[in-house]
């Protein structure tokens, strides 16, 4: 059913030359999410208008299938409506939260994960006490930081990290893509992730 | 869950698991247990926050793609059964609906606001106009308030029409202007009339939304609504 991993190479890893995440002002998105938590359907419509292109982009890139991406996008906004109150109690960047909800929803579909009851992934997503990278300068700094740290990894490992985050690649797909046995790829990627973590926390 | 013996030596199993969770690498069998383990362990939860903040810097690489037309209507159908009427004022501004709500013939909660318009843009001839807000009942809460604006004192008087006091929680009143975030007007009683000042330099006027949420005793600890919203109304002139 899924396209094979080699087809998925079609999304090239980009290096920070694109537009900022969304044209919308994060503080406007925060205000809309707060009103959505208050069950304001007009705010919900506006939030959809401001953010759906970004979140549809996330779903398309991860699911690689338009019909599945459309189904996932609906689930994303159903969750946003139902869980916006979970977000407003937190301090996290609103756009990052929305992208995280979209990624989680798509990965649930891709991996056959069946979240039941309270969605623990969403609970974990809002459990943040640090402000998100709201300021353009701070966001640019964060982008430079992860690019610098990824560059310190071997290129194929950096590509694997990007493939997992941006394309939702599984260990099986990464093993196939890099022509490495499954248990080997897990070991080498874990080592790379720990190296990346040390760089990212420095 | 596997241990680290087949994953290479010298790797902190917990940390590596959080990294895999953050990237979405875990399969269906491993994912749920990992989430529960992280939620239960403050060290691992902090580790996850680090990954999320850092990885979010890659989010700009998701290219935007316009969602197909009609998608929002499908979402509304899933959530509400029918798409919302275009423009809330069409419904909220309907005097007939408000009257029906006030008469209790619809399952709606109502906030009525009597107000002298003080905003300079208002024609003086309209200065005796009254504002009222009517909203749909929020999930059958059965909670409704009436708010009256006293221009002499510059206070909003608020009285519960229905809804029981809660031993463990408080009702909190919020004012919302345009796209701005809700601003607290403080805790309100379900059993006694209260007077509340508009927050800061906010002025109540046509279009101001008042909402009631359920909060911990003493009000929201965060300054933003944290509990379910049980009643909401938008001020309109009648």
Keywords for this entry:
heterodimer, A: 202 residues, mainly alpha, 9 helices, 69% helix, 0% strand, globular, B: 238 residues, alpha+beta, six-stranded mixed sheet, four-stranded antiparallel sheet, 26% strand, disordered N terminus
Mean pLDDT of chain A: 81
Q: What's the main sheet of chain B like?
A: 6 strands, mixed
Percent strand of chain B equals 25-35%
Rounded average pLDDT of chain B: 72
Unreliable segments of 5+ consecutive residues of chain B? 1-8, 85-131, 133-137
Strand content of chain A: under 5%
Give the terminus-to-terminus CA distance of chain B.
64 Å
Q: For the largest beta sheet of chain B, what order do the strands appear in spatially? A: 7-4-3-1-2-10
| Radius of gyration of chain B from CA coordinates | 24 Å
* Principal-axes shape call of chain B: elongated
The termini of chain A sit apart by 42 Å
Sketch the topology of chain A as an H/E string, one letter per element.
HHHHHHHHH
- Rough outline of chain A: globular
Q: In percent, how helical is the residue content of chain A?
A: 55-70%
Q: Give me the Rg of chain A, rounded.
A: 18 Å
pLDDT < 50 runs, ≥5 residues of chain A: 1-23
Element-level helix/strand string of chain B: HHHHHHEEEEEEEEEE
What is the β-strand count of chain A? Answer: 0
Say how many strands of chain B there are. 10
What structural class do helix, strand and pairing data of chain B support?
Answer: alpha+beta
Structural class computed from helices and strand pairing of chain A: mainly alpha
How would you portray this structure in words?
The complex is a heterodimer of chains A (202) and B (238). With 202 residues, chain A is an all-alpha fold. Helix content of chain A is 69%, strand content 0%. Chain A contains 9 helices and no strands. Chain A has helices spanning 26-37, 41-63, 66-88, 94-111, 120-126, 136-151, 155-167, 171-178, 182-201. In chain A, helix 2 (41-63) crosses helix 3. Residues 1-23 of chain A have low confidence and may be disordered. Chain B has 238 residues and is α+β, with helices and mostly antiparallel strands. Chain B has 6 helices and 10 strands, in the order H-H-H-H-H-H-E-E-E-E-E-E-E-E-E-E. Chain B has helices at residues 13-23, 28-40, 42-55, 71-80, 88-92, 95-102, and strands at residues 108-114, 131-136, 144-150, 155-162, 169-176, 183-188, 194-197, 209-216, 229-234, 236-237. A 6-stranded mixed β-sheet of chain B has the order 7-4-3-1-2-10, with helices on one face. Chain B has a 4-stranded antiparallel β-sheet with strand order 6-5-8-9, with no helix packed on it. In chain B, helix 1 crosses helix 3 (42-55) and helix 2 (28-40) packs across helix 3 (42-55). The longest helix of chain B is centred in the N-terminal third of the chain and has 14 residues, at 42-55. In chain B, 36% of the residues are buried. Mean pLDDT of chain B is 72; it is low at 1-8, 85-131 and 133-137. At the A-B interface, helix 1, helix 2, helix 3, helix 4 and helix 5 of A face helix 1, helix 2, helix 3, helix 4 and strand 8 of B.
């Amino acid at each position: 059913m899924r396209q094979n991993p080699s087809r998925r190479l079609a999304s090239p890893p980009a290096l920070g030359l694109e537009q900022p995440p969304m044209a919308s002002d994060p503080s406007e998105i925060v205000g809309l999410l707060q009103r959505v938590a208050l069950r304001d359907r007009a705010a919900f419509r506006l939030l959809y208008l401001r953010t759906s292109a970004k979140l549809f982009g996330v779903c398309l890139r991860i699911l690689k299938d338009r019909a599945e991406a459309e189904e996932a996008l609906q689930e994303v906004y159903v969750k946003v409506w139902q869980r916006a109150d979970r977000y407003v109690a937190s301090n996290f960047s609103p756009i990052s939260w929305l992208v995280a909800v979209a990624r989680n929803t798509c990965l649930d579909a891709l991996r056959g994960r069946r979240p039941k009851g309270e969605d623990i992934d969403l609970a974990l997503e809002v459990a943040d006490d640090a402000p998100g990278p709201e300021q353009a300068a701070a966001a640019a700094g964060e982008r430079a930081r992860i690019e610098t740290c990824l560059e310190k990894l071997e290129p194929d490992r950096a590509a694997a990290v990007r493939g997992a985050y941006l394309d939702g690649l599984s260990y099986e797909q990464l093993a196939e893509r890099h022509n490495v046995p499954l248990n080997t790829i897990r070991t080498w990627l874990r080592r790379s992730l720990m190296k990346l973590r040390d760089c990212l926390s420095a | 869950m596997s241990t680290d013996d087949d994953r290479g030596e010298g790797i902190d199993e917990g940390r590596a698991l959080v990294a895999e969770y953050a990237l979405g690498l875990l399969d269906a069998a491993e994912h749920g247990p990992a989430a529960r383990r992280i939620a239960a362990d403050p060290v691992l939860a902090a580790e996850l926050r680090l990954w999320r903040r850092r990885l979010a810097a890659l989010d700009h690489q998701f290219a935007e793609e316009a969602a197909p037309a009609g998608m929002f209507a499908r979402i509304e159908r899933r959530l509400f059964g029918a798409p919302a009427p275009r423009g809330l004022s069409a419904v909220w501004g309907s005097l007939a609906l408000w009257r029906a709500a006030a008469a209790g013939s619809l399952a709606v909660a109502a906030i009525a606001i009597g107000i002298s318009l003080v905003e300079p843009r208002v024609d003086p001839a309209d200065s005796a106009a009254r504002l009222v807000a009517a909203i749909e009942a929020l999930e059958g809460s059965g909670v409704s308030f009436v708010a009256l604006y006293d221009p002499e004192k510059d206070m909003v008087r608020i009285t519960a029409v229905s809804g029981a006091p809660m031993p463990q929680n408080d009702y909190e009143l919020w004012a919302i202007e345009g796209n701005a975030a809700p601003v607290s007007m403080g805790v309100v009683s379900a059993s006694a009339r209260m007077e509340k000042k508009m927050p800061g330099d906010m002025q109540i006027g046509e279009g101001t939304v008042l909402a009631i949420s359920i909060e911990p005793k003493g009000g929201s600890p965060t300054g933003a609504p944290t509990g379910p919203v049980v009643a909401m109304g938008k001020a309109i002139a009648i």
